[in-house]
Amino acid sequence: MELKVKDFNPAAATWDEKPRRVQLAADVAKAIRGYVPVPPRAEAMEFGCGTGLLTFNLIDMLAQVVAVDRAEGMLTIVKKKAATLGATQVTTKLIADDLSALGTEEYDFIYSNMVLHHLPAIEPVLERLVAALKPGGVLALSDLEDDDGTFHDKPEGVVQSGIKSSWLMKALERLGLINQGHTVAHSIVKQRAGEGKAYPIFLVWGARAQ
Length: 210
Ligand SMILES: C[S@@+](CC[C@H](N)C(=O)[O-])C[C@H]1O[C@@H](n2cnc3c(N)ncnc32)[C@H](O)[C@@H]1O
Known about the structure:
The chain is of the alpha/beta class. It has one domain (9-207): 3-Layer(aba) Sandwich (Rossmann fold), CATH 3.40.50. Helices cover 27% and strands 31% of the residues. A seven-stranded mixed sheet has the order 3-2-1-4-5-7-6, sandwiched between helices. The radius of gyration is 16 Å and the shape is globular. The structure holds S-adenosylmethionine (SAM). Residues 8, 21, 25, 48-50, 53-54, 68-71, 74, 95, 97, 113-115, 118-119 line the site of S-adenosylmethionine.
């Protein structure tokens, strides 16, 4: 059976209205600043940027950033935010699932938040992102730690309940990344069975050798 990928266009206009999404992006940005060796004045790409919550939290560290998504509605919001902030270093790129629109550009820093668990096939995407790193470039990925399937309020179209960060670390190592690290950047608490249940959000990173 072919997996149908969730369409985030309908969610774009109200995406930032959930404070937990805003807080999650702020905490991931804080963890990136605290732990990840982002090259100075990086030329960057955010994969699956949504409305750019993470990108606009990191903007002062980035010389250029391409915000990439498969949902045009999300990119419309990114463009509006960039125009309002005068953030001329932010550009957007609409891509399809074959990732061919990524082209041959290479980046100092590639990052992504809460995207991997929506991908029907993660490994080809990881391979493509690692290939788009310049020598010495850094990849940082945050996502929901593999859970018991109860995180999503509307699980229709969600491909995986979460990602095992230990698996992800090994996958990145197999792809040649070095100087890897792992931390828990945030925890989302949701009401489940009458009580608060915490869902950890990991941040994993690694660098391409020089
Ligand atoms: C859960 S949202 C997270 C958005 C944003 N990163 C954030 O933290 O608020 C997942 C995003 O990944 C995008 N996405 C999913 N699969 C993708 C793919 N194959 N290529 C590019 N973007 C993708 C979706 O369109 C959506 O905007």
